[in-house]
Design a protein that fits this description.
α5 crosses α7 and α7 runs antiparallel to α9. The chain has one domain. The chain is of the alpha+beta class and 282 residues long. It starts with 13 loop residues before the first strand and ends in an 8-residue tail after the last helix. The strands form four sheets. It has a five-stranded mixed β-sheet, with helices on one face. It has a two-stranded antiparallel ribbon with strand order 2-6. It contains nine helices and eleven strands. The site of zinc ion (ZN) has 7 residues, from β4, α5 and α6. Zinc ion (ZN) binds next to β4, α5 and α6.
Length: 282
């Protein structure tokens, strides 16, 4: 999927705090906030409350020479630079949902994506790259460390590619849409039929719906078959059964929080083939 070179990007939809590194001790687990707040992440992984109860220690420094997304002005920039590509996806995703929810009598509110490196402070606690991308309903922001996209290939065995990234970003915005529609749940129960799995599959479906309509936003050309294949490949890579097999060698459906590889592919496909978010009812 390529951006239209002349598309005008709005970099203000991405808060770039990369390179603001915390020096000194890193993370102090157990200190500071003891809030247990729902975050909606992309994948099954470390216990998010363990991470969120930790706080960065030491001092924060900013590299004055770092590139920022403020330079991301056009689709041509998005075709050249990964951070600008994320700006382009965020803009196109939010444009789609603004228009689509208006048709259904709902008002979409813009949610920024925070691009960070390693750790940053989120409204839900401390965001750490280990958690993978997530949506924080408290501040209504998506948190993303670009290093995750390398991990998606090296740790989760995905093929990667730009459209794997689009799938991930659109999934997180799916949670923001759920939040706006008042259907975001903090039910923590697990298992293939649990509310948390259904909620994650719905976010995958919303990602597919956006993909179907992505070109209509004016930012992007229509996705190719190869783009769809890389989205499906990424969706499978973050399937609970795949992650469980990778980390413990066995599959335990009762612990699923996001759904199996097959379920995640199925619901992305439902969204993409219908292009209708009201059909996203796992
Ligand atoms: Zn999710």
């Amino acid at each position: 999927m390529s951006f239209n070179d002349n598309a005008k990007l709005d970099p203000s939809q991405v808060e770039d705090v990369r390179g603001r590194r915390v020096g000194g001790g890193g993370l102090a687990v157990g200190g500071g906030l003891t809030l247990v707040i729902l975050v909606v992440s992309l994948l099954l992984g470390v216990d998010p409350t363990a991470i969120l109860n930790s706080v960065p220690t030491g001092t924060t420094t900013t590299d004055p020479n770092a590139q920022t997304v403020a330079d991301c002005k056009t689709g041509a920039d998005a075709n050249k630079r990964e951070d600008c590509r994320i700006v382009g996806y965020v803009d196109a995703i939010q444009q789609y949902w603004t228009d689509e929810l208006a048709k259904h009598g709902s008002q979409y509110t813009l949610a920024p994506t925070v691009l960070y490196t390693d750790v940053t402070q989120a409204g839900c606690g401390t965001a750490s790259a280990e958690m993978g991308p997530f949506y924080c309903p408290v501040d209504g922001k998506v948190y993303l460390d670009l290093a995750f996209f390398t991990e998606l290939q090296t740790r989760f065995g995905a093929q990667g590619g730009p459209f794997a990234e689009a799938y991930v970003v659109a999934h997180e915005y799916g949670h923001h849409v759920q939040d706006i529609l008042g259907i975001l749940s903090n039910d923590q129960r697990t298992g293939p039929q649990s509310i948390s799995v259904k909620q994650e599959l719905q976010a995958d479906c919303f990602s597919g719906v956006w993909t179907k309509h992505a070109a209509e936003t004016g930012y992007l050309q229509a996705p190719t078959d190869a783009d769809i294949a890389s989205a499906l490949d990424a969706a499978a890579a973050v399937g609970d059964d795949r992650i469980q097999k990778e980390t413990s060698g066995k599959v335990a459906p009762e612990a699923w929080t996001h759904g199996s590889a097959a379920q995640r592919q199925q619901w992305f496909t439902t969204g993409y083939s219908t292009g209708d978010y009201t059909r996203c009812t796992p």
